[in-house]
Amino acid sequence: MTYCVGVMLDKGMVFASDSRTHAGVDNFAKFCKMTVFERPGDRVLVLLSSGNLAGTQAVIGVLNQRCAAGDAAPNLWSARTMFDVAMLVADAMRDIERRDGEYLEQSDISFNASFIVGGQIRGEAMRLFRIYAEGNFIEAGTD
After folding, report:
1. What share of the chain is helix, strand, coil (3-state, %, to 5)?
2. 99-48-112 Cα angle (round to 5)
3. How many Å apart are CA 84 and CA 129, to the nearest integer?
4. Distance from the CA of 40 to the CA of which of 13, 46, 124, 137 falls in 20 to 30 A?
5. Are strands 12-17 and 20-22 parallel, antiparallel or unpaired?
6. How far is Cα 139 from Cα 131, in angstroms, rounded to an integer?
7. How far apart are CA 81 and CA 112, in angstroms?
8. By C-alpha distance, which of 46, 69, 53 is closest to 19?
9. Are 45 and 36 in contact (CB under 8 A)?
């Protein structure tokens, strides 16, 4: 089980995630489950991932590829708001689920990846979202 937490404070945000993975009863390894996209003076975006490691890595890979493609398609660098960022992460999750879901089901496995995404884009307040495996999401409030 992965543990991730994002906390929005008055003067910043705190993100934490474990790094433990496992592929069976006695096969444990470590993998960083926190990904940071940053352009100083423009935006800081933090993604915390949980669920199937192959699925979360694929989603992050898609997000990185879309960023590298430049303005060819909407991406994390061109997103105008943190809401747009949450939508882009959700879209990437659904793209991977469409690609891999049928094959996973053949082995009686379901696509299972979820994210906490937060940060700030210049001109906008800090925002924090929980993105569920289905691609829908909620935004954290001040409470």
Report:
1. 30, 35, 35
2. 35
3. 11
4. 137
5. unpaired
6. 9
7. 26
8. 53
9. yes
- Judged by DSSP in three states, 119 sits in strand
User: Which one-letter DSSP state was computed for residue 75?
Assistant: -
- CA 5, CA 130: separation in Å to the nearest integer? 10
pLDDT tops 70 at residue 111: yes
DSSP secondary structure letters along 5-58: EEEEETTEEEEEE--EEESSSS-EEE---EEEEEETTTEEEEEEEEE-HHHHHH
Angstrom distance (rounded) from CA 114 to CA 86: 12
- Residue 47 contacts residue 116 (beta carbons within 8 Å): yes
Closest C-alpha among 113, 112, 96, 116 to residue 47: 116
Q: In this predicted model, what pLDDT tens digit does every residue of 18-64 receive, in sequence order?
A: 776 665 666 666 667 899 999 999 999 999 998 888 888 999 999 99
pTM: 0.87
